[in-house]
Amino acid sequence: MRVLVTGAAGFIGSHIVDALVEAGCDVVGVDCLLPAAHTTAPDYLNPAAEFHRTDLCDSSSLRHILAGIDGVSHQAAMVGLGQSFDDVTDYVTHNDLATGVLLKMLAAEEFKGRFVLGGSMVVYGEGSYECTEHGMVRPLPRSAVKLDAGEFEPPCPRCDKDLVPRPIDETTPVDPRNVYAATKLHQEHLASIFSRETGAPVTLLRYHNVYGPRMPQNSPYAGVASIFRSRLEQGNSPEVFEDGHQLRDFIHVTDVARANVLALTAGFENPGPYNIATGQPKSISDMANALAEANGTPVISPVVTGRYRLGDVRHVFASTERAECLLGFRARVGFTEGMRTFAQARLRESGAPPSEPCAVRQ
Ligand code: UD1
Questions:
Q1: Ligand 1 centroid distance, CA of 309 (Å)
Q2: pLDDT digits (tens, 9 = 90+) for 231-263
Q3: Is 131 in the pocket of ligand 1 (CB under 6 A)?
Q4: Packing angle between helix 98-108 and helix 179-198, nearest 10 degrees?
Q5: What distance in Å separates the CA atoms of residue 75 and residue 55, rounded to the nearest whole number?
Q6: What are the helix (H) ranges across the chain?
Q7: First to last CA, the chain
Q8: Does ligand 1 come within 6 angstroms of the Cβ of 11?
Q9: Cβ distance 320 to 133 under 8 Å?
Q10: Which residue from 120, 177, 209 has its CB within 8 A of the most atoms of ligand 1, so it is best to mutate?
Q11: pLDDT (tens digit, 9 = 90+) per residue, 118-165?
């Protein structure tokens, strides 16, 4: 099977290339080596795969690469929260337009193989919450006034009482709350419409918080695990925002790569979205402590700062039932073991400087 991996030089894409090579696939990688993500060409590109430095928006280069492709794992994207709304055109170009060009070129090639999209849980916005009086509810975005007062839990939008966070499943209505999230949702829509119009089977994998080797270092585009890991490496305490009790599902990148291989090679088609997660929610403080402990001696303790980022959601953690039952995917790397190895793992230089939280609690 000849598989195209887009974003093949990136954190997740490069692990997918490795996993596909390991599974015996003939792998073609493309990546435009976006300056915000790469200062130099990475030295970890799998020599068993073919690699092209190509911008997906360049349809003429793509045409040659797509000939004879049986499956696609589309990972190329600009990730993270970015620095300001000024980033909007870059996100739209690299995420929406590039996906549009890729799908158009695949349709022109009459591609009928599997197409797997590296999606994100950011499409959900806030996680799932239950009110003891009103059942399942969708809380409103948290206000700066409440966050300044240290009130981090979103209240019930109907009675203002406390809510209980619940695992989010794929039937939950989407609610993208930043530019990146909006472009990840648009990618899902474009891929689904492509599937309907061409008959090519599409699988949407909604990754939760991915961590592991080759994660980009501290940058506005990095996730919290890499930011904490970078701070520890420099001898600094991880700065935990809010009160540290916010919940996420941290999944190791090798498990995410395995989910891609499964979706591309399973003997059955896997339409629709799947949460790709461990099903074991952890708080940001749990993660900071696990990483600090694994980092060795002397232990540098995380600091809970009470600072916050206005765009952050409070809790998002996954129901993994659909992925387990239909895709047959279950994460293998446990949290403690994963964080232990991540503490020693090699991160990737990233091109953009780190940013400060956009708001500070008074
Ligand atoms: C992250 C990614 C998002 C991706 C999603 C799923 C970023 C910026 N966000 O969303 O793109 O789709 O995972 O893979 O890459 N925090 C701290 N200290 C810090 C930084 C963050 O305490 O120094 C806290 C935040 O306030 C938040 C939590 O850590 O509560 C998670 O932050 P982060 O990893 O940035 O964003 P997610 O919303 O989980």
A1: 10
A2: 998 899 999 999 999 999 999 999 999 999 999
A3: no
A4: 10
A5: 13
A6: 11-22, 59-66, 88-91, 98-108, 144-148, 179-198, 224-233, 253-265, 284-294, 321-322, 335-344
A7: 57
A8: no
A9: no
A10: 209
A11: 999 999 999 999 999 999 999 999 999 999 999 999 999 999 999 999
CA 117 to chain centre: 11
Reported as half-sphere exposure (CB side, CA atoms, 13 A), residue 174 has a value of 19
Distance separating alpha carbons of residues 182 and 78, to the nearest angstrom: 12
170 by DSSP, 3-state: which? coil
Count of residues in the chain: 362
List of long-range contacts for 92-95, beta carbons under 8 Å, 24+ apart? 92/179, 92/183, 93/57, 94/34, 95/180, 95/183, 95/184, 95/186, 95/187
Residues 6+ away with beta carbon under 8 Å from 275: 121, 168, 169, 170, 206, 208, 318, 319, 320, 322, 323
Contacts of 255 (CB under 8 A, 6+ apart): 276, 278, 331, 332, 333
